[in-house]
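dumping this here so i dont lose it
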């Protein structure tokens, strides 16, 4: 047999054998495995938030001189000078407003128990209550303190 005849015979056999090989058999194709990714997170404590509170204080000093209630006529003393020289520290605006309120309470018959509570709430120390009340009486309402 010459080479052509052998090639033709091989090709004629190869086609039916390929078709035959496919009959009754299962062919499986390999598929790549699904990729799995593992993510690990570590729980970390969150730092507490920092809270900053800023208090703004404005101190305005004015001097109030009332000539009608001035016990030291001819002297340069003021209401503020008197309570500061007694060791009491308070803003002059608060002190004069509170003095007027204390006098009004005394004039309506309130006792020192009520007005002492007002002074303590405003920041006057307990050991300064009598002194501050006396200074209020001298400057704002002579003779009204119970």
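and the seq i came up w/
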């Amino acid at each position: 047999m010459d080479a052509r005849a052998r090639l033709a015979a091989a090709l004629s056999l190869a086609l039916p054998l390929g078709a035959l090989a496919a009959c009754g058999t299962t062919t499986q194709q390999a598929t790549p495995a699904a990729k799995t990714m593992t993510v690990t997170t570590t729980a970390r404590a969150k730092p507490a938030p920092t809270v900053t509170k800023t208090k703004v204080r404005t101190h305005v000093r004015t001097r109030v001189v009332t000539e009608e209630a001035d016990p030291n006529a001819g002297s340069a003393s003021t209401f503020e000078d008197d309570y500061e020289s007694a060791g009491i520290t308070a803003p002059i605006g608060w002190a004069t407003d509170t003095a007027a309120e204390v006098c009004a309470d005394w004039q309506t018959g309130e006792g020192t128990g009520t007005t002492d509570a007002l002074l303590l709430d405003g920041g006057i120390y307990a050991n300064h209550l009598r002194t501050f009340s006396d200074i209020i009486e001298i400057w704002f309402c002579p003779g009204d303190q119970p």
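The chain has a mean pLDDT of 74.
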